[in-house]
Design the sequence.
């Protein structure tokens, strides 16, 4: 069985509050959970920075330091050029931040659904073709977990449902081609949620920085009493089971 921890929507902005929430989650993963002894990978699904500033990514690099193999991709609050410069030392690079982690029996893909200057998202044909190549190069039958920032479908929070993926049909086509995909996981909505997309589980990670209200939970956008959260994805025998945790900060 594989364990993939997913965190999302860290929104580093230079404040102590944001740093404390991320630190609590990372302490939980590295300490109580045993870090790489028990967790095979850490997947960070975007909105790492609040304004896409280099100094926010420098905060993130320091705070996310861990021995757990880590993949990161971007959200609508991120900036590809700043991220690539700080994290990968690539100057003037605005290419999508896609990455893959191959384990013996599991392939994890982190795909960039951000669109510069917009809050909705899009998994471009080039990104999906890159993902196709990664799957083709994996051993036959390898389970695949696909992560990105924007949910592929509305999930019942109007503020977010207006800002999902622009062309989910392209993603559905990609999923249909690959029966080894155990599910897709996203962020952006700042709420732990589970649904189905293209016949597979589609899991939305809780937000680390904050949680958003459902329409019946109150009139404020942000639910201020919720803890930062993490999703633990267990992948075994081609099936995905997800557990959620709220971490005191
Ligand atoms: Fe966010
Ligand atoms: Fe977002």
Sequence:
């Amino acid at each position: 069985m594989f364990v993939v921890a997913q965190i999302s929507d860290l929104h580093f902005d230079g404040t102590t509050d944001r740093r404390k929430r991320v630190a609590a989650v990372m302490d939980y993963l590295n300490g109580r959970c045993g870090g790489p002894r028990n967790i095979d990978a850490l997947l960070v699904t975007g909105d790492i920075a609040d304004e896409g500033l280099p100094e926010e990514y420098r905060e993130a690099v320091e705070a996310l330091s861990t021995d757990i193999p880590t993949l990161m991709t971007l959200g609508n609050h991120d900036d590809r050029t700043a991220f690539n410069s700080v994290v990968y030392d690539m100057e003037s690079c605005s290419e999508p931040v896609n990455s893959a982690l191959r384990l013996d029996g599991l392939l994890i893909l982190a795909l960039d659904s951000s669109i510069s200057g917009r809050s909705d998202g899009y998994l471009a044909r080039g990104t999906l073709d890159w993902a196709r190549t990664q799957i083709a190069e994996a051993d036959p039958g390898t389970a695949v977990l696909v992560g990105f920032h924007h949910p592929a479908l509305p999930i019942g929070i109007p503020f977010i449902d207006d800002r999902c993926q622009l062309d989910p049909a392209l993603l559905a086509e990609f999923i249909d081609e690959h029966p080894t995909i155990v599910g897709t996981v996203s962020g952006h909505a700042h709420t732990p949620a589970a649904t189905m997309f293209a016949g597979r589980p589609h899991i939305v990670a809780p937000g680390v920085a904050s949680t958003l209200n459902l329409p019946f939970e109150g009139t404020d956008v942000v639910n201020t009493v919720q803890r930062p959260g993490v999703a633990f994805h267990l992948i075994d025998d081609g099936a995905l089971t997800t557990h959620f945790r709220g971490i005191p900060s």
